[in-house]
Amino acid sequence: MSARKHNKPAGAVRSPANNSHHKKPQSPSVKQKIYEPYWPLESVNEGIKKGQLIVGPLRINPKNYEDAYVPLPDGSADIFISGMKDRNRSLNTDVVVVLVNPYEQWRVFVDVFDEFEKSSVKSSKSLEEVSDDDSGPDIVYDDSDNEASCDIDIVTDLKEMSFTDDATNDTRLQKTPNSQESKDKSLKKTPNSPSQVNKDKNLQKTPNSSPQGSNMKTPVKKFVSILDMRTNGSSLAKDLFGVGKSSNMSEEDARRFVQRTGRVVYIYEKKNSRAASGRLKLMQDKNKRFALFSPSDSRIPRIIIPMSECPKDFYDRPDIYAQILYIARIQQWDETSNMPLGCLAKSLGEAGQIEPETEAMLIELDVDDTPFSDKVIECLPQNLPWTIPASEYTYRKDLRQSCIFTIDPATARDLDDAVSIEELGNGNYQVGVHIADVSFFVQESTELDTAAASRATSVYLVQKVVPMLPRLLCEELCSLNPDQDRLAFSVIWTINEEGEIFDEWYGRTVIRSCVKLSYEHAQGFIDHPNKVWTQDELPPITNGFSVQDVCKRVLQLNKIALSLRKQRFDNGALRLDQVKIQFSLNKETALPNGYSVYKQKDSNRLIEEFMLLANMAVAHKIKQSFPQKAILRRHPPPQIKPLEVMEELCDSLSLEIDASNSSTLHKSLLKYYGEDEFSQSRFQVLVVLISKPMQLAKYFCAGTFQDESLFHHYALNVPLYTHFTSPIRRYPDILVHRLLAAALGYSEVTEMSTQLLQKQADYCNDKKLNAKMASDRSNEMYFSIFVKEVGPLEETGMVMAVLDKSFDVLILKLGIVKRVYLEKLPLVSSEFRKNMKSPELVIEWSADEVCTRATRHLITLFTLVECSVFADKEPLKCSCVIKRPKEEITLAAA
């Protein structure tokens, strides 16, 4: 694997080994380097080849911007990157090259070791004073990778300050209610770092500092290393962490107690857009040459903006711009600068308004919402209304007389898929899945193809869809609309009611859907199989078919789907469904006026089963035909360490969770499903906890992997899988359609190399993740607006993580995780107990008008609480508090 060339930041040196021989002549005012120069490309490639360097995507914790992680190549665990210096100017989602630190500098999970020590010997020495409150495994719900969570606490402007050139200075201090670094007096002492940092005597006159700058304390080390344990630990610690890697520690113990640490030495690929939304402020020292841009996302560093980029009267009247949302782009980040230099790209409007915030989000996530170019539009059929060319009928199977129909959400416009079923008279059926033949319109290497490949996916927001293809294709020519002749790619099986498959056929077809059913229509058939339906209860049914014809076929398909589903889970599939909400919008204001919980029913599962079946069938076909070029989709197993932490947590609560594989995990989870409120709530929390260690599924080109066991899809527990069924909204499906067409002899196989196909697959993975984040953030935005409009929401929640000064609550009806801070509650006192793997809080409520005496309350994992979710002062943010329990809860040994 070789690193790609990229534009190196100014100041990067050619060789880490001989910097002194290549430096330019220095003037007396030369700036001190804050960040390590990036390694030269030759050294990087050599290190990767020898296995001395790790390449992977960087994830920054949205709750603590100083903590970042890079996964090991096998995905089994993460490398911990502590602080901005070690992150070395890389940004969230960048693919970075990491040098793993020496063993002595690896991170120790002190809380886990303490528990191990207590169970082994009674130690007289405690290490708690050097443990970071929020870094140990007793944080059950670690948000380091929670990109889709609605519980991302955005940190905006905190306290303006000037900055020194100290190499360990951070450009931003995070101010959250439970932050241990937000005030100097709360900085903790660690064995090998000072408790206080003196003033920097060599302030530089740079855009990000001034001679009048305030002194800023250097953040102390936030974790305990193996060297710390050797130096200051108990006798057991000194023995276990003795000299020599793992000399006195088993591999299992090493995985439990220790996490690799490292530092970034090169940015392999700048995947972060380097665009951020935020607000413009004056420097604390009122610098007239530069302004300070404070991003809304705490994972993006503050950006220095030349005053010439700012509004003309900004310096004199900064207050009138305080609520204006801007887009800034990072242009340069030198080794000598705490913060990057950037430019203002756009003024979006008032912060907190839907359209400016939506536009900002799309720019940040690199979602292209611009109109399609004229060259792209020229690739579309020009003579409308369009009709299928006569030549297409000569080689396609004509299925226009078959009873084919679509089942989709009621509001869907891009109808990718249709289904059909016919009885064969011998107990078997002919079942068809018919997918829009988008590849007929999107020819390879055209301007239209380039645009689709660039967008890679449609993006679904609350108020709109950003389409991958022009709407003429999405909503008309490709969409399998009723009573319209349409081109399709079909997979047809001979199958019985038990889901046994006897034959399958693939081919291009012409179809004519007889009706557009919603999931609600299909569910009505399933729920009321004996009802005599009338035409006015359904959309128009054409092509000579009756309501009864369609109803009968839906019931037949559902019966087979139930058998297929049972087979899948019997064979080890895993399903982790979480609550989703959807909004209704006011037609005049476009603001949310209500929400509902999206519930998956049998009609959804019916379509899901046949789409899965088609995807698996096509995966085998294209892999067999083109083993080097097949575009497939794999799902790596969960990360080992977080999975073990989850298992140990459940074990401490007498919950038997066997995470050996997807099958045992699914069966373990089902044991704890019940009909009562507590069991259902606990089940929801368990699903969220089990989802945390899961890795993302990824597109890949088969020829890039020698070990075919890596093709495996963990959640489905199948050896081969791909995406074939949604080509209107996913570009990988178009690639798969082209491969299937070549496999069936309709066309030549693509000339794209394995490497180019893999590059496109990687790009699609990135775009898919960005689309998911955009969708989640859009939902979060509308939820916050709804809460602001209607007032606080009173909902039941269940505790899913306990910290020393806060705890996380899953709002059960909404599927949203919110952090509750103790300082926001009217408490007399609180006590944090490290109760083995399951920590707990004892809080004492102050007396009030209703309850005239203090009330004590035990907060543990799975505690049911009554929550109040309310709008923050910060636009588009919500906070949560819990209510005092109606009666005092008896506390054991309180």
From TrEMBL:
InterPro entries: Dis3_CSD2, DIS3L2, Dis3l2-like_C, NA-bd_OB-fold, RNase_II/R, RNase_II/R_CS, RNR_Ribonuclease, Rrp44_CSD1. Residues 129-145 have a biased composition (Acidic residues). Residues 396-746 form the RNB domain. It holds the Pfam family Rrp44_CSD1. GO terms for biological process: miRNA catabolic process; nuclear-transcribed mRNA catabolic process; polyuridylation-dependent mRNA catabolic process. GO terms for molecular function: 3'-5'-RNA exonuclease activity; metal ion binding; poly(U) RNA binding. Residues 170-180, 204-217 have a biased composition (Polar residues). It comes from the Eukaryota. Its main location: cytoplasm. One of its GO terms (cellular component) is P-body. Mg(2+) binds at residues 408, 417. The record marks 416 as: Important for catalytic activity. Keywords: Cytoplasm, Exonuclease, Hydrolase, Magnesium, Manganese, Metal-binding, Nuclease, RNA-binding. Belongs to the RNR ribonuclease family. DIS3L2 subfamily. This is DIS3-like exonuclease 2.
